[in-house]
């Protein structure tokens, strides 16, 4: 980037880098090309190709001036400077880990970046192998036999899981979710399912884990899927997953777990606990916080193979009997099955899955376990330091925490948030006297300064 | 033949494997004894490939060289608008302000919100719409959002009986899939003899059950729906809404706006029209624009401008959410950068050159093009030849083939969309490749491709005995 170098502007506007007299540097036509093409077509002007009825022609302008690259970059950079540079101790489902440089450099290789869905596998073997390796990573972490090559994000993966459960047991009408489920996820789940006749019901959480007795009371033959998270919205690890899966199965329901690949690097394999579907956001590897952008993780038991949403990459052979990769089982998909498709998804998040795969490969099993261990050690350290402050109960729940935890303050939580903002920190209040505090490798260097600021904040 | 470009893809053949899987290079089991969790919560060990950074860099670099992108050569995939993706937008998407947590309070991220608001405004202007949500993460998600808004609109008027969405048979597969996801029955209508909406069939399909008509314009044959105003009034007279599938908006940029044609609701595919890279399948983004009476139903939140700055706002009758937060933010900022770079004149030039290129290429190829006049894309028929085999043969000439065997209305369909990014010389070469292939014999076509990393792929085996992870890999493969 040469953002510091001032470019020379012509009197007519931004300098152009091509012979074209137009303001579009991405159309390669010279005036002579256009003339010759029109001549071949027997036309005087390009406008003759547009036979739009005059009543619906747009004759005004958008009033968007053209700009040079330099101007666009500078303008956007200046707008971004209006953001307050707060150090984020925010989590609640969205987490940042340090992204090694290799992830940006390799994923930005333009063959990866500028290709599309692998409809022509013979020229797409590289990306297909990447997605196959991504699927394999998720299979290893979940213990489930099927992982697709991506959904949009965590929330839409939950929605797709619920719809999958509906295809497996078409007569069931209820989905059970924890009462502390992030509201945005609940809203997406409702939108994905309510028009198919599902009701969403919440089961209670007790001391930041599932109230298993209450769940037992609520379960019935109407329930299609029981959804549980670990780590959950409080950052607590769920300690009864096996029991929850058993309760689900006794009534013929599926059990779906929401989690992420870093947590799964150390947590007991969901498959071994009886979980049928695993969803989550795999972009905790590969992408920093990007205002909620992610990649939906989706894995399930092999029995559901032909009912799975999204794209699947498989291994087969080519005409010379050599190993080859291809998108497979496409008859599930919208471009073939149309209104009877398993999902409407077409464009997905493949490039983010590529970044997740590179990040995971870079870390390897040692690095993944170390990163996950840090996600346990750091909140332990921070929460105990905060607990030494008068008027602070930290962590509020006596659970194993992953990346984040709930703190109770005698002072109003919003006042604490406001004060910390003046000190350069962003935290979020979850109710009048409770805050959610998240710590990872990306903000841990500020741990002690944050504790000092917190002391002042609760005075 | 000799002056036609041939495309030899990277090949690293060792025995029968082009590039070993990471798992074939190394597998390491790591014990978790030192992890401070009780044994019932943690796994015993984790087994994954453990490789050094240089080994990983080479692995992925090789894989990239076995991937064909827009930067490799022409990418004629019709309906996907595989135009050139300007490099500078990648730099914009890694500016320091891009990495923002979704739970930041609005007053602390005024810059981010200003950027989103500016994009909302520009998209609204480009589509002629009154309000825009940027939340849907893809075109299909935009369609689903539109369907939910359509439902919310009718139900807000106490009208619960409308249970049908009308869709032309040539529509993208996502249209009926999205309508179904929204709980609607789909009613498919055939095209007329000219490849456009059959007005009689539409009249017959319309009823008090009609919630909406979903339409692409130009349609998937590249034809402008010249009777769009009549179509709009027919749908509106029956109390239905008109939904615009923005997949083909590139053809009309700056020339005709969906709103002016009578559409009430539309999605934009920023990865098509606004040049954000397709990333091997995604991410893209599918913002949705609506006319004012539908604004109250938009997903939450939208960005609004107040006297004290920008804020997040939940419309009164919001349908709720279609994505966990605010969609594919990094794609949205790239789209804004593209729009700002081009401005009015550049956007107009994009549609001009996209349509010129399609028409020029169409005039040079020998395969029959049954439906005309077309805009930014056309459907040729390979006649006696199998369109899928023609596509494989095109790979040998260094061209990413068109969409094949779709739309079904043309037999052996080749849906060709060259976009505005190709120059005349390349178009001439593409045409020469098509024409050469049209005269090739069946055995040449059947044996293609030959210059690609792998030969023709056995799809049947892949589906019959699926191997979807390295765990189920037979060592002989």
Distance between the termini of chain B: 36 Å
Q: Quickly give the CATH architecture of one domain in chain B.
A: 3-Layer(aba) Sandwich
Encode the helix/strand succession of chain B as letters.
Answer: HEEHHHEHEHEHEHEHEEEEHEHEEHHH
Main sheet summary of chain B: 7 strands, mixed
Cα(first) to Cα(last) distance of chain A is 46 Å
Judged by helices, strands and strand pairing, the structural class of chain B is alpha/beta
Task: Please give the order of strands in the largest beta sheet of chain A.
Answer: 2-10-9-8-7-3-4
Shape of chain B: globular
Summarize the structure.
Chain A is an alpha/beta fold. Chain A has helices at residues 31-41, 69-80, 101-107, 110-113, 125-142, 154-168, 183-193, 212-218, 241-250, 261-264, 334-337, 350-387, 413-422, 447-457, and strands at residues 87-88, 146-147, 174-178, 199-203, 205-206, 209-210, 223-229, 254-259, 277-281, 296-300, 312-317, 323-328, 392-393, 404-409, 425-426, 428-431, 434-438. Chain B has helices spanning 22-25, 53-65, 88-92, 110-127, 139-156, 174-181, 199-205, 228-237, 258-261, 329-364, 387-396, 424-438, 442-447, 459-464; strands spanning 28-31, 45-48, 131-133, 164-168, 185-189, 210-216, 241-245, 265-267, 288-290, 302-306, 309-313, 378-381, 403-404, 413-416.
């Amino acid at each position: 980037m040469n953002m510091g170098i001032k470019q020379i502007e012509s009197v007519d506007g931004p300098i152009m880098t091509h012979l074209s007299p137009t303001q579009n540097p991405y159309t390669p036509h010279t005036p002579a090309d256009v003339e010759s093409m029109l001549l071949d077509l027997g036309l005087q002007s390009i406008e003759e190709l547009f036979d739009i009825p005059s009543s619906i022609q747009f004759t005004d302008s958008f009033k968007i001036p053209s700009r040079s690259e330099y101007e666009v970059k500078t303008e956007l950079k200046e707008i971004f400077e209006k953001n307050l540079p707060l150090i984020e101790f925010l989590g609640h489902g969205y987490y940042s880990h340090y992204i090694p440089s290799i992830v940006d450099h390799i994923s930005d290789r333009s063959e990866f970046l500028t290709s599309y869905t692998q409809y022509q596998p013979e020229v797409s073997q590289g990306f297909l192998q990447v997605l196959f390796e991504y699927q394999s990573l998720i299979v290893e972490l979940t213990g489930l036999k099927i992982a697709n090559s991506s959904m949009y994000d965590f929330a839409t993966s939950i929605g797709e899981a619920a719809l999958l459960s509906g295809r497996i047991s078409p007569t069931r009408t209820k989905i059970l979710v924890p009462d502390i489920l992030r509201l945005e996820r609940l809203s997406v789940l409702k939108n994905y399912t309510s028009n198919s006749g599902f009701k969403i019901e919440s089961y209670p959480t007790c001391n930041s884990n599932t109230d298993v007795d209450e769940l037992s009371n609520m379960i019935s033959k109407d329930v299609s899927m029981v959804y549980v998270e670990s780590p959950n919205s409080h950052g607590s690890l769920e300690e009864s997953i096996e029991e929850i899966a058993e309760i689900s199965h006794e009534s013929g329901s599926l059990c779906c777990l929401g989690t992420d690949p870093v947590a799964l690097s150390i947590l007991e394999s969901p498959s071994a606990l009886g979980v049928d579907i695993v969803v989550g956001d795999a972009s905790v590897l590969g992408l920093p916080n990007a205002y909620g952008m992610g990649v939906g993780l989706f894995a399930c038991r092999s029995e559901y193979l032909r009912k799975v949403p999204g794209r699947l990459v498989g291994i087969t052979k080519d005409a010379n009997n050599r190993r080859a990769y291809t998108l497979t089982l496409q008859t599930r998909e919208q471009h073939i099955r149309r209104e009877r498709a398993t999902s409407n998804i077409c464009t997905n998040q493949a490039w983010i899955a590529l970044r997740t795969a590179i990040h995971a490969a870079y870390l390897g099993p040692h690095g993944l376990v170390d990163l996950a261990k840090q996600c346990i050690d750091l909140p332990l350290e921070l929460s105990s330091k905060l607990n030494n402050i008068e008027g602070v109960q930290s962590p509020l729940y006596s659970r194993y925490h992953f990346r984040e935890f709930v703190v109770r303050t005698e002072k109003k939580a919003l006042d604490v948030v406001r004060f910390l903002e003046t000190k350069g920190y962003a935290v979020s209040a979850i109710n009048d006297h409770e805050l959610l505090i998240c710590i990872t490798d990306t903000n841990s260097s500020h741990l002690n300064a944050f504790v000092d600021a917190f002391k002042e904040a609760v005075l | 033949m000799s002056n036609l470009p041939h495309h030899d893809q990277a090949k690293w053949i060792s025995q029968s494997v082009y590039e070993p899987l990471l798992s074939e290079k190394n597998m390491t089991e790591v014990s978790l004894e030192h992890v401070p969790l009780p044994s019932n919560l943690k796994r015993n060990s984790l087994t994954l490939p453990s490789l050094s950074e240089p080994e990983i860099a080479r692995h992925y670099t090789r894989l990239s060289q076995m991937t064909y992108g827009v930067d490799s050569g022409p990418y004629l995939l019709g309906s996907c608008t595989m135009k050139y993706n300007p490099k500078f937008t990648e730099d914009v998407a890694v500016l320091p302000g891009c990495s923002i947590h979704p739970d930041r309070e609005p007053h602390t991220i005024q810059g981010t919100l200003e950027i989103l608001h500016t994009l909302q405004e520009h998209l609204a202007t480009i589509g002629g719409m009154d309000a825009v949500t940027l939340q849907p993460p893809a075109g299909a998600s935009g369609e689903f959002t539109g369907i939910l808004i359509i439902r919310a609109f009718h139900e807000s008027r106490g009208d619960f009986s409308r249970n049908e969405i009308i869709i032309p048979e040539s529509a993208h597969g996502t249209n009926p899939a999205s309508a179904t996801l929204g709980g609607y029955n789909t009613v498919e209508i055939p095209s007329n003899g000219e490849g456009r909406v059959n007005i009689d069939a539409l009249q017959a399909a319309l009823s008090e059950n009609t919630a909406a008509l979903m339409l692409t314009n130009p349609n998937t044959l590249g034809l402008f729906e010249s009777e769009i105003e009549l179509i709009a009034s027919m749908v509106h007279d029956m109390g239905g809404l008109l939904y615009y599938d923005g997949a083909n908006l590139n053809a009309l940029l700056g020339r005709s706006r969906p709103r002016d044609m009578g559409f009430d609701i539309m999605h934009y595919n920023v990865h098509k029209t606004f040049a954000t890279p397709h990333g091997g399948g995604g991410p893209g983004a599918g913002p949705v624009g609506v006319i004012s009476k539908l604004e109250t139903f938009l997903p939450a939140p939208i960005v609004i401008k107040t006297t004290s700055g920008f804020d997040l706002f939940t419309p009164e009758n919001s349908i709720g959410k279609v994505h966990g937060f605010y969609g594919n933010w990094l794609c949205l900022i790239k789209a804004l950068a593209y729009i700002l770079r081009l401005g009015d004149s550049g956007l107009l030039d994009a549609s001009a050159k996209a349509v010129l290129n399609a028409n020029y290429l169409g005039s040079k190829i020998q395969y029959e093009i049954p439906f005309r006049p077309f805009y930014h894309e056309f459907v040729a028929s390979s006649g006696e030849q199998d369109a899928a085999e023609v596509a494989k043969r095109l790979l040998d000439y260094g061209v990413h083939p068109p969409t094949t065997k779709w739309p079904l209305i043309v037999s052996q369909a080749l849906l060709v969309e060259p976009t505005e990014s190709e120059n005349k010389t390349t178009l001439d070469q593409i045409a020469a490749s098509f024409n050469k292939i049209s005269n090739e014999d069946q055995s040449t076509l059947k044996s293609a491709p030959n210059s690609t990393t792998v030969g023709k792929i056995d799809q049947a085996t892949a589906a019959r005995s699926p191997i979807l992870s390295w765990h189920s890999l037979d060592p002989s493969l």
